[in-house]
Design a protein that fits this description.
- This protein is an all-alpha fold.
- Helices cover 80% and strands 0% of the residues.
- It is built from nine helices and no strands.
- Helix 2 packs antiparallel against helix 6 and helix 4 packs antiparallel against helix 5.
Length: 208
Amino acid sequence: MLDVHNANLSFFSPQPFFIAGFFFPQQLFQLAWLYRLYKLDDRKPNERRELEGMVDFVPYYALGNLCIASWMIFWNSSNLTAAHAFVTVNSLAQLYYVAARLPPMDTSSTSSILTHIVSKTFAGIGVLDFLHNGSVAFFKDQEPNLAVKVLTGVGFGAASLVSDWIFGGCLVYDLVALSVGQSGSWRTLLGGYAAACAAIVGAKNLAR
């Protein structure tokens, strides 16, 4: 996978080890979520309510993992356009779930906390995957133009304004990964965006 990454660079190519660094702890949360899903007993009223909230995410979770597996096949064969189709489906599905279906977090419920962490980290890394794969599939070896620079700042800034600390933290991580993977003034600008988004997310959630 790394050889394909190194052969296909663009203005949204992250430092690849940041992606691996993200997925390792995220996998641990997924395992905890799956264990919780398996152990809950729907015959018990309290556990049934928790289970209902988790089951609603199951189709999106399954779709996400299917898309990631399919993406890996096409990525490793350097078919980046086909790979991007699966990235797009996954990213949009995860963002839709977080924005439209995920109920507010119940901090007294382990199931609710885990569902929020797993779904929002899936969506958060999905943003990075979409930008990365799209840029190398359609804009290989290109530098960002003014529109890309402005839209990146506006898009991440607006998303940070409506994000909690989990999804907002993922957005900041995405920007840091992009910054480290780039060079020159674009790297500096991405780093500035990361700092600004971190300030927005921190201020918004501390003010709650």
